[in-house]
């Protein structure tokens, strides 16, 4: 009962925080930033304004992390692992600030190149080990694993299109090339593809988790009988 209450509390707080941040961004920050930009916003509103901007940046990932911790607490939380997940949640929340502090804000082809190669290698490793993982599963759980793999595939495609959106052929982070090549239409279309891939990735991942939860509940019921 305690774990159920903890999970519910974390879920409510996490969802509430994410919803609040989305509303804050759309109806308060977006109109101001549309007219000023980040640097002019900082100059006009100073530290209080940047604190609000920082809360907007970290609020959504923090809320998502709280929902993850809520799901984790449902299955009985181990203290050492809980501490690790809390730390990872905090790191994820400040990732945007942390990455800028470590790697800077200037364009770096090497950074994106190494990151892209790393993602490609990890995609390959994920599907390789997924195959071994699937082989060890009982038949009742393989359908859920297949759905999750479909989600991973769409995330991989999203990463690939994000690369093309920022660099060649859309050139979103090269505004002079974007304008010279008149590729704004292609950049918009490619960003729409990225959004579609992310949505489908989460759809298949969520369906896989739901299917796995149902299958495990069925297995547990059979054992109890």
Features:
single chain; 225 residues; mainly alpha; 8 helices; globular
Describe the structure.
With 225 residues, the protein is mainly α. The chain folds into two domains: 103 residues, no CATH class; 120 residues.
**SS-based class:** mainly alpha
Q: What does the oligomeric state look like here?
A: single chain
Number of helices: 8
Tell me the span between the first and last alpha carbons. Answer: 23 Å
Sketch the topology as an H/E string, one letter per element. HHHHHHHH
% residues in beta strands:
under 5%
Total beta strand runs: 0
**Averaged pLDDT, please?**
91
Tell the overall outline: globular
Rg over CA atoms: 21 Å
List unreliable stretches of 5+ residues.
none
How many structural domains are formed by the residues?
A: 2
> What's the helical proportion of residues?
over 70%
Largest sheet: none
Summarize the structure.
This protein is mainly alpha-helical and 225 residues long. It has helices spanning 2-36, 38-73, 79-93, 95-103, 109-136, 139-166, 175-180, 184-224.
């Amino acid at each position: 009962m305690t774990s159920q209450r903890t999970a519910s509390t974390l879920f409510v707080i996490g969802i509430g925080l994410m919803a609040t941040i989305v509303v804050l961004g759309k109806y308060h920050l977006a109109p101001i930033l549309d007219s000023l930009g980040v640097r002019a916003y900082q100059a006009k509103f100073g530290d209080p304004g940047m604190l609000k901007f920082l809360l907007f940046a970290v609020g959504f990932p923090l809320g998502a992390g709280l929902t993850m911790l809520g799901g984790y607490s449902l299955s009985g939380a181990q203290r050492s692992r809980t501490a690790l997940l809390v730390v990872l949640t905090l790191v994820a929340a400040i990732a945007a600030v942390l990455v800028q502090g470590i790697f800077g804000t200037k364009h770096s082809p090497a950074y994106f190149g190494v990151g892209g190669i790393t993602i490609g290698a990890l995609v390959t490793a994920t599907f390789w080990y997924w195959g071994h993982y699937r082989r060890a599963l009982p038949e009742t759980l393989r359908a859920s694993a297949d759905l999750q793999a479909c989600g991973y595939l769409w995330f991989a495609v999203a990463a690939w299109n994000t690369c093309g959106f920022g660099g060649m052929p859309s050139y979103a982070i090269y505004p002079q090339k974007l304008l010279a090549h008149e590729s704004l239409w292609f950049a918009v279309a490619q960003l729409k593809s990225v959004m579609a891939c992310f949505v489908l990735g989460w759809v298949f991942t969520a369906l896989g988790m739901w299917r796995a939860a149902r299958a495990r509940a069925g297995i547990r019921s059979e054992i109890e009988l």
